[in-house]
Here is the input.
Amino acid sequence: MFVPILAYHKIQNKFEFGVSYTRPKQFERQIQYLANHGFSSLSIADYINGIDVNEKKVIITFDDAYTSVYENALPVLEKYNFTASIFVITKFVGKYNNWDYHLNNHRTEHCNWSEIRELASKGWEIGSHTVSHPNLTTLSQKNLWYELRYSKDILENHLNRKIHTFSYPFGS
Here is the structure.
């Protein structure tokens, strides 16, 4: 069965060139629309395993684990009884990114371990988004293995749970 996946990055008011942010009011209108039309959220792992899949499900994802997700998306999703999947770049936990700051000289902060653990405790699915957010199509086999395996290991060690999902950086 087809289940739509809504993919987000940042939920913030600060303007940026590009398409990786959604304003908090826009985000709330989108989630409110889903709630008003009888939708509920589903994790990627549950979808893959065929658990509670039906035509009124939606998968909500956030790449990069930016703090704006914790600060602005979490309260909205809780208000409407939704959860989401968040994909963490382990090298940048609690730090600032280094791949899109050149667009407007603004670097964006990522969630720290405490925030990520809180999301997990609230039913959010935590997935890997590599160690350092490279374009995976350019890596050697050894570096590819490192990015995939080590990020999973770090997440599992910090969260004390198995990590079953992964999101490709840059969609590649």
